[in-house]
Design a protein that fits this description.
2 domains, 224 residues, 4-stranded antiparallel sheet, Rossmann fold, 11 strands, Arc Repressor Mutant, subunit A, 21% strand, alpha/beta, 5-stranded parallel sheet
Length: 224
Amino acid sequence: MKLLVIEDDREAAAYIAKGLSESGYVVDCAADGRNGLFMASSGHYDALIVDRMLPGMDGLTLIAALRAAELRTPVLILSALGAVDDRVKGLRAGGDDYLVKPFAFRELLARIEALLRRGSGTTTTTRLRVGELEMDLLARAVTRGGQEIELLPREFRLLEFLMRHAGQVVTRTMLLEHVWDYHFDPQTNVIDVHVSRLRQKIDKGFAKPLLHTVRGAGYCLRAE
């Protein structure tokens, strides 16, 4: 799942993005309201984390603009303003939840998980399946044939991308951009290493392999 953090405090944004990435999410960041509105308007995010006080355009104006454009992406507002009237104003502007600074990261993570479960009117996919391989995006759990498979956060992101593109050939460039957030080829074997480890976890011990290498092209996850 992909999240957008709109926060002008670089240290706070880095802290949030790092924690969410380690929890298995794909995270983008915007440092001001106008750029945040532009990125959020793409509709490519499952949830937004929006600081209330932003340069260029404040967080509540940004959220109101999204709602006026009929974008229903769930929004968690972050703010040092914690009075009841401030929280009510944020929710009435279109926010789905409101978290007062300073906060514990585990609470932020729990609130994001709750927003994703709630859906807020979106059509977010929460379960993926390819043959007997199943992924629960909310519980961050993977099973094959009822057998639980433990994955590291990057392996989970890699498998999620492959499952979302099941039956298609996925190139190295696609994986670099969408799983590693690289927009160039750093000439590394990191993809090969991770794919090899993932293949060991999801295919070893099962009669039919799901993860296939397409020589000269990339990889394909498919059930025979």
